[in-house]
């Protein structure tokens, strides 16, 4: 049993060759049968014409004898010799290979004894093969008879005196023609199958080349090269191109998912490390002071200072835990109770708090003119935390006398908050990580500021939860500007201020001439 081909190319080629081979066999069989029937019908037609001619003439056995003698004389006169083969000449006159005369009982007759060159064996075999010549004469049918090792197609004709004539033609010509037809069809079929196999294998290799590219791409991806994609092949069919496109889209999603997973895993490791570090420092301080207190190594003044430090570190850990919980809640995408929130009111409150903490810091508030305000759709507590965190960063990371500008404007497209300080600014690398958890541009000042590096991360999470955007503009020595955009909300009792044709917000305070809308807090 032949082994089954393993490759798809070989299987397709084998299937094509097998189907065509079956078709060729069926065609060859049909052509052989048709050729056999056509040639056989031609032989039968010739024999029947001869039979009709002989039966319609008033010929008897004696007449045939004289005709055979005459045919022999004519033949002798033609070639100059007399071999007595009148029967053969008479048979040739009828365009036949066999001419035998039988008596009324179907036995051999001496009439035209040399008919067709037939010898005694042929005559005996012919008489034995024709079981009922009288019945064949009546029916007029042609039958096959084998005599002297040769197949003949014969008909029997009854003459007027009751004798019968057997006329026949060899089937060897027909068999030779069929044999040659089979040989030529076999050769042509084998050549066609060979060409088909070569062409099918070449076409399959060309059409299936995109699949090999897919295998190479999949192997490269399995080895870690997630950026590999399946190249579009001009030899591929529409289905293969569609498959390539779908696989490329899937690979892009897989790469994005893997990249995001790796990034999330790295962030989680950093978060755990940073959180552990942030908690370890205050816990170590609390543990140290408690050990000193338990061992009685502190006097009254030191005890008060130790308790004060323990309380401060506990508050620091409490703030850290609260901020972590706030971030965890925001990551769960909670359903916030969005209401119209006057961002101007939040800014005024936060600016007043900062003025109380740092009276010497110059503050400039640029707010919409009049009492209309700028209403954003959001959660008031969350937005208040955003403004508070941003101003806390200004207070902690910029000099106490550095000017601060807070601007609020709103129209139908959104409410925008801009907080610009005049501090030292950030390096581009630090600005890119400003919203990372536990990131601090100046880690050495962390114990002094008391921050854990979660303020900007909370700002970003809250703004995104409000379907808004936040971005930074900063450079070393040029301060830091935070831009926040929030969805607008209709003011209580009215609609949000429309944008003017030039895309500028509704009139707001500008310069020192705007009265109460420009506040300089010093």
From TrEMBL:
Q: Which InterPro entries match?
A: HAMP_dom, HATPase_C_sf, HATPase_dom, His_kinase_dom, HisK_dim/P_dom, HisK_dim/P_sf, Sig_transdc_His_kin-like_C, TCS_sensor_his_kinase
**Listed Low complexity bias regions:** 501-516
Enumerate the residue ranges of region (Disordered).
Answer: 486-522
Residues forming the Histidine kinase domain are 274-490
* Keyword Lipid biosynthesis included in the entry's annotation: no
Please state what class of enzyme this protein is: transferase
Main subcellular localization, coarse class?
Answer: membrane
The record's section on Pfam families has: HAMP, HATPase_c, HisKA
Q: Which reaction does it catalyse?
A: ATP + protein L-histidine = ADP + protein N-phospho-L-histidine
> Which PROSITE patterns does the record cross-reference, listed alphabetically?
HAMP, HIS_KIN
Which keywords belong to this entry?
Kinase, Membrane, Phosphoprotein, Transferase, Transmembrane, Transmembrane helix, Two-component regulatory system
The protein's matches in CDD domains, at most eight in alphabetical order, are given as: HAMP, HisKA
Q: Which SMART domains does the record cross-reference, listed alphabetically? A: HAMP, HATPase_c, HisKA
Cellular location of this protein?
Cell membrane
**Domain (HAMP) ranges:** 205-259
Record bears the keyword Kinase? yes
Q: List where Pro residues composition bias occurs.
A: 487-500
Question: PANTHER family recorded for this chain?
Answer: SENSOR HISTIDINE KINASE TRCS, SENSOR HISTIDINE KINASE YKOH
Q: Give the protein's recorded name.
A: histidine kinase
